[in-house]
From TrEMBL:
Species of the source: Antarctobacter heliothermus
Keyword set includes Zinc: no
Lineage: Bacteria, Pseudomonadati, Pseudomonadota, Alphaproteobacteria, Rhodobacterales
Protein's name according to its UniProt entry: WGR domain protein
Signal peptide feature range: none
Keyword Nucleus in annotation: no
Boundaries of every WGR domain copy: 1-71
Membrane-spanning ranges: none
Record-linked InterPro entries: WGR_dom_sf, WGR_domain, YehF/YfeS-like_WGR
Alphabetical UniProt keywords: Plasmid
Ranges in a coiled coil: none
Length: 71
């Protein structure tokens, strides 16, 4: 899932990317990457025991980002 935000006052374009991936031992990861478009972003990986937990976390982050103007 890719989200973008354009700050017109500073002419900055930001991205926020999230992907859910299975682990080797039956766990699940939520991989997040964010930063300015055209530049390498920062990456964070959070681990969950169940896929639904990772999906719930992704949804909560998506809602928080949409309140800040990400689309």
């Amino acid at each position: 899932m890719d989200l973008t935000l354009t700050e017109h006052g500073t002419n900055t374009s930001l991205f926020y990317r999230m992907e859910i991936m299975p682990g080797l031992f039956g766990d699940w990861s939520l991989v997040r990457e964010w930063g300015q478009n055209g530049r390498p972003g920062q990456i964070r990986i959070d681990w969950f025991d169940h896929e639904i937990e990772a999906k719930d976390a992704r949804f909560a982050i998506q809602m928080a980002k949409s309140k800040k103007g990400y689309e």
